Amino acid sequence: MLYTLLSRKQRILAQKSSKLTKKTIRWLVTLSSIPLFGIVTAFGIAPNTTSFEEIQVEEVVLDLSIPDVLPETQTNQTFWHQENIRRGDTIAAILNRLDISNQDSIDFLQAARGSRAMRQLKPGQTIYAQTTADGELLSLRYFFGNEELFLMEKTDDEFKMTEQSIELDTQIHMKSGVINSSLFAATDSAGIPNNIAMQLTEIFASEIDFYRDLRQGDRFTVVYETFSNNGKRAKTGRVLAVEFVNKGKSHQAVYFKASNGADGYYTPDGESLRKTFLLSPLTFSRISSGFTNARFHPILKEWRAHRGIDYAAPTGTPVKATANGIVAFSGSQKGYGNLVVLKHNGKYETAYGHLSRFASGISKGKRVNQGEVIGYVGSTGMATGPHLHYELRVDGLQRDPTKVALPTAPPIAKKDLNTFQKETQSLVARLNIMRNIHYAALE
Questions:
Q1: What's the CATH code, domain 169-274+414-442?
Q2: Rounded CA separation 195/177 (Å)
Q3: 227 confidence band (pLDDT: 50, 70, 90)
Q4: pLDDT per residue over 101-110, tens digit each?
Q5: How many CB atoms lie within 10 A of CB 276?
Q6: 285: left (phi over 0), alpha (psi -120 to 50) or beta
Q7: What is the CATH topology of the domain spanning 79-165?
Q8: Residue bearing the bigger pLDDT, 194 or 31
Q9: What is the dihedral of CA 43, 49, 52, 54, to 10 degrees?
């Protein structure tokens, strides 16, 4: 574009002066604006009451100096990135998501072989990395264990690492948001870290289906903690209290750690929010086929019962165990394709079909916890596209999981009830304050 602009200007300036005589019709002023890489043209038009033929108009070309084009951004700039640790993550996978160069990744992995911190990658925690524009790794920070810091700094092309205990300062934050399109869009708009948003979905996983149940206008208030060292954000802590208003119904939760060390989220009345089964084995998905006694099978081309729920999702989407259990089956089984069956306490089983692959270590007899990844969405077996086929079996019979009343975890023990009320009273008060501020802002 710049070449065309300069050529055009040279042609104009090469015209003989005789061509720049007085003309009728218009004023034309042509200006070159190189930083904007464009032409700005101004036209002066006489009022309608004046005849155009009476107006003497002269075409003028201004010879403006062309400034030098600004150089491109220097490549020696540095940037700070952060990456949340996922279930089953390795430091190699995290370096890849941080776009670290291949050579620096190899050198770092070699230098960190004996690191205690790199063997304690806790899902939900954050790794911070400073890099150049071309992916050179300059420094890396990770807070792990009991307030310990792993610090790597690059000096003279050599990675130097330390692991040391530090003192962290705690800050309490209160944020509110409204759902306009999606949960993560709303939390981003409110300045809430992604780690806190994910905790929010896990807290209400047995109360709200965050794909099907969200409505525009739903709102939330969250109280959470962060930790800093010397004034710099070190890590994000946990959600302490949260209220989510979904379809006009308020759901509140507060964090509490009991005298026996067990912790979790409870209603302000002390009822546990953790149910035996999650509402869905996928965090965000849509139901492509529900539980029904009559469905036209897309492959068999006949009407037959569909004794489960199909969740449409991209291949590779993590599939979570909806309850604690033991792997009763892991392998390929006819129309199910790759299938995992979990046996739960009492009379319950869950089945997860059409998986593209199994999670590491998932084999018969393996004990798994609620929310643990057991496989990944695929299209194996009799499937027309990638999705998860999920079944809830009660006494060996498939039942509609959306209609079965499932047990919940026990409430706060009587011996802890007074302590619970004292410790959570201020958290509930914070939620009420933020709710009142929100309503006042709407008036």
A1: 3.10.450.350
A2: 16
A3: confident
A4: 999 999 999 9
A5: 17
A6: beta
A7: Nuclear Transport Factor 2; Chain: A, (3.10.450)
A8: 194
A9: -120
